[in-house]
Amino acid sequence: MLQAVDMCAERLRDPFGREVTSLRVSVTDRCNLVCFYCRPKSFVPCSRSELFTLEEIARVAEVAAALGIGKIRLTGGEPLLRSGVVGLVERVARIPGIDDLALSSNGALLGGLAAPLAAAGLRRVNVSLDTLRPERLRAISGSGELDRILDGIAAARRAGLRPIKLNTVVIRGVNDDEIGDIARFAASHGAQARFIEYMPVGADPLWRDRHVARAEIVARLGRLLADDPPRCGADPATYYRLRDGSGEVGIISPISCGFCSLCNRLRLTADGRLRPCLTSDGEIDLRTPLRAGARDAEIADLFRRAVAAKPERSRYVEAPARPMIAIGG
Hints:
Layout: E1 22-26, H1 54-66, E2 71-75, H2 85-93, E3 100-105, H3 114-120, E4 124-128, H4 134-141, H5 146-158, E5 164-170, H6 179-188, E6 192-197, H7 207-210, H8 214-221, E7 231-232, E8 238-241, E9 248-252, E10 265-268, E11 273-275, E12 284-285, H9 287-291, H10 296-308, H11 324-327
Parallel strand pairs: 1-2, 1-10, 2-3, 3-4, 4-5, 5-6, 6-9
Antiparallel strand pairs: 7-8, 8-9, 10-11, 11-12
Helix pairs in contact: 1-2, 2-3
């Protein structure tokens, strides 16, 4: 339970006037896949003692909610690898003020967990789907078990998780010829395709050659899209309506278009560090003060420090010191 302290009197607002209402929480930096754009071969996950406990995550979520953060997304690594994740969802879902609880997954373990997660209070899920071809999945992620991912998507739909968003990192020469196929697949399965520009977060020296800009993604979608103008949502994506009325697709374009002016989030890494920005390496340690007995008001002050440190713009063309798997997706 939160200690008796009024933390809601002052909402979290950064130096550029953006109100912070979203927290992405990495529950583990381990993954059952080895996607080359996310996990370098040299990456070593944090030790058990370094890993934030589920109790520590829940307590930080309570403090965040008291500061006006109403949206929490559980990420990884692969969050479904973390033992006790269903119980964590149940606990976070009960926190007053948390009105949007989501999860990002690679989908391989979702088939057996979608229903328990939904029953525990999870509202929606994003699933990585970089290809519809098993041989390409093996080249991208080291696994050819596409059927398990598709089963996970189907299980999420049966469990009532809505919306289901399918995230595709578009990589030139790897999967950029599947943009239309993935958009059609998503629409036919009651999901929404979201195409993400390739970024240098995995420290890939070839990222410029592999990058496909938003304008080209739109061109690849071609006549699948309606003629009306795109819309901007509350998230980083720009949305385009499908011509046949079956839904819409989203495009996340941090390199070619940017969306920093709308940023409303912080990130909590699996080892308990608040990160003000995806590409900024400035992090604020929560684990050490928590384990030293810090009160909730002190943790709230660390949140305020993190928000005050948010940069005006991200540096997407510069790779951060930590890869995506260590930062949290």
